[in-house]
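Open question from group meeting: does this chain pack into something compact, or does most of it stay loose? Before anyone orders reagents, we agreed to write out a predicted structure and look at it together. Recording both the input and the output here so the notebook holds the full record.
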Amino acid sequence: MNSLNWRILFKALRPNQWIKNLILFAAIIFNGKIFDGPYLLHTLSGFFIFCALSSSSYLFNDIIDLKYDRLHPLKKKRPLASGDLPLNTAVEIAFLLALFALLSAILISTGFFLISFSFILLHILYSLVFKKYAILDILSIAFSFTLRAFAGEILTGFHLPFWLSLTIIFIAIFIAATKRHAELLREGSKTRPALFQYQERLLDFYTSMFGSASIIAYSLFTFLEEPPQFNTPVKDFLITVMPQAVDRKWMIVTIPFIIYILMRYAQLAYSGADAEQPEKIVTTDIPLIVSMFIWGVIIITILYVL
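Structure tokens returned:
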């Protein structure tokens, strides 16, 4: 391949969507192990494997959806739909990426291989079957995020708190519902068969229900779960000077940020053309990026300093 073809191939792998695989790090972050070298490297290797699996599934989906993508105002610009990437090349790369990722996964552990295999199988079934049926298509997306989170647990042996796991599921359904809502308004039902079975008011209901469920689940997580315990200089100082501060449930202060993040995302999803590309919204909107950054800093401070 010449340099132009390599750029086209890289674009077809959708690296901008690899951000979804950062969920694998949730297990070590919320168990106080993000700065533990072996756990971090183990999770990082799993992250790259899931990036390969994700790109393989995206190529497979583009192959299956080729006819519909050529009718879509945005997706018709994808390398495969536009004709820049030959079909046989896409098939070969998709197969090789999946094979490489699964072979790498089995070298890590049998459990991680089974999760990885379930992940790619889910995406294949989604492309062939699930995306043709309303509700199943949205739930499949949510289950994909759940498998990513579970993969992080398998890699490290640390479990995510129950209410945080539910938060991940609910937010995934919330995002999937806003994505379908944007597709329905922008293209109608001509580019995706499942959209025939949706109505705008139904998707509004899904968005409202799972947005609310996300806030409730996250609030319960902040109130009920105990953070990891460390002996840090800041904590030792607080124990001496202000012992009552150490026992407070500081995670509660992050709730307003989650509420703002969901409200801001919904605002952008309902008013802009990028709702069909959730990864673009969360990586380009400055207020959203700033709020997520502050939320992350507060989380790290509470978990690793206080």
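Observations to bring back to the group:
The chain has 15 helices and no strands.
The mean pLDDT is 85.
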